[in-house]
Amino acid sequence: MEIEERQPVPAGPGREKPAGPRPEEPVGPQPPERSGRRRSPLPRRALVGAVAGCVVLGGVLVLLPSLGRGGAARPAAGPVARAVTAVGAGVPAALPDLEALIDDREARVRDRPRDDRSWAVLGVAYTERARRTAAAAYYPKAEKALRTSLRVRPDDNAAALDGLASLAAARGDFRAAKHWGEAAVKLSPKRWAAYPALIDAYTGLGDYKATDRALDKLLSLRSGPTAQAVAARVYGDRGRREDAAAAISDAAAGAANPSERAAFLQQAGALAWERGDLQESLHYYRAAVNTDADAYDALAGQGRALAALGRPSEALRAYRAALAKRPAPRYALELGELYEKLGLGGAARVQYDLLRELVRQESAEGVDDELVLGLFEADHGDPQAAVRALRAEWQRHPGIAAADALGWALHRAGDNGEALRFAVRAMDKEHGGRVRSALYAYHRGQIERDLGQSGPARRHLAEALRINPSFSPLLAPAAREALAALGEPPAGGPPEPAVEPDGSEQSGSSEESGESGDSAGATGAAGAPGVAESSPGSGSSGPTAPSTAPGQPPAPAARPSAAR
């Protein structure tokens, strides 16, 4: 089987889709059907953590080094050897080294089309290139290479299964990532490489008990920087900020190459941003870019931090540079909202149009952008379209990020009763909603305010600003205005419970008690969760890591003895 010649993939709208024949279907496990996904050609919004997305840092390059048939490592040129070492360790490779590895493996499979290992390495290299540069046209090439590896060697091919799991996670297709990841683990239970993508899949599907089990297994099999970076993200999702900071500090200290180190510094910057430490996050983001100029996520992070620090000209330059190198929809959304904050409506609309085009292109390559798309539509476009898209996303991937996004879209569409059920779900500890998210708290507070529940609304709006006073250039000021409009709570505290003639007491008003009357009940026809749970306590934001010189990792934080 021949592969197509690679063509340059221009950044942004108009980039070419690689030509070539469609791969044959492999023998072996097949992914589940896509449950009828149809994407709207509309844009989306990006604070999914952040969920961040969302693929595990460096998680797509988790194959073992390419070996010859006798088991001996093949000699290679310097850049290829470095990329192969990164592949074997499951960490990011420098982009020039990654390109050299792609060139090398493309030449190899042309000469030896039945070399299943080289096909698998080529597939994960394509995936990593797509993830690092937002060149989504490389995702179908990755799928073709990985399926070819599995067709050539349908049995005992854990490397191809690992690669397919990581590819699916990178695209945001968490059901397929679970399918391939579990197949890889079943084939080779003591192989660690499938676990990062499997953890992403369980998180995206809202199965947090499975996430914890998979993380425990990963840490029992591997204790290096890659595993620590995965653990840091899971700890952050659980609200264990000190644990997350300590784990990513350990990962940065153990990084073996600049690209790996930059990726971990970027993750540390994201953690600092989420807890509202703006200067600290800017420090980490700058250190990441100084360590690896291709750390485009960190460059966009600089824009986010600079905007919050009141330095809009620098923020605009950082965002533009990030978009030029990695045209991701969420960067376009954040830049558009910054323009809107600055009163530059025309420039904002240009970015929103770019977002729509980028989403359309990525959707054509199998990338799930529905969370960013839905949140964009809710705030800047058609809330009803956002509801339709996010209901389908919730059915596919019922994680906390989807619950929050759907709840907000329902609110913007005027259905606050159902919106509150999803907003509660996003902050429900029983279902994994322990992350201290300013965005989630803001969304819930505004929904409660519209329902007339002033006590809970006041509490959650204040919590959003306490977590990160600058969480959004548009929404943080709206949170302050809403909180001011609510005013101070009534003097004398909550009302005394009424006494019934038989001596029993009626419960007090739900408005000031913190409980939402609409948050309980069975799941409705629309699939809305029917749980009532108070939000996580405000707690401490955790210690701030000491400042270090650019490019240096933070000092390890003290590890708490128990989970928070």
Strand content: under 5%
- The share of residues in helices is 55-70%
What summary fits the major beta sheet?
A: none
- The number of helical elements comes to 24
SSE topology string: HHHHHHHHHHHHHHHHHHHHHHHH
- If you average the pLDDT, what whole number results? 81
Q: Uncertain spans, ≥5 residues at pLDDT below 50? A: 1-77, 497-527, 530-564
Rg from Cα: 24 Å
> How far is the first residue's CA from the last residue's CA?
53 Å
What structural category do the secondary elements indicate? mainly alpha
Shape: globular
Report the count of strand segments: 0
Would you kindly provide a brief summary of this structure?
This protein is an all-alpha fold.
Description:
- 57% of the residues lie in helices and 0% in strands.
- α4 packs antiparallel against α5.
- It contains 24 helices and no strands.
- The protein starts with 77 loop residues before the first helix and ends in a 51-residue tail after the last helix.
- The chain is mostly helical and 564 residues long.
- The longest helix has 20 residues.
Descriptive key words:
mainly alpha; 24 helices; 57% helix; disordered C terminus
Task: Walk me through the topology.
Blueprint (H helix, E strand, L loop, with lengths): L77 H12 L5 H17 L4 H18 L4 H15 L5 H14 L2 H14 L7 H10 L3 H14 L3 H13 L3 H13 L4 H17 L3 H14 L4 H13 L3 H14 L3 H13 L3 H20 L5 H11 L2 H14 L3 H13 L3 H11 L11 H13 L3 H14 L7 H12 L23 H4 L51
Helix pairs in contact: 1-2, 2-3, 3-4, 3-5, 4-5, 5-6, 5-7, 6-7, 7-8, 8-9, 9-10, 10-11, 11-12, 11-13, 12-13, 13-14, 13-15, 14-15, 15-16, 17-18, 17-19, 18-19, 19-20, 19-21, 20-21, 21-22, 21-23, 22-23
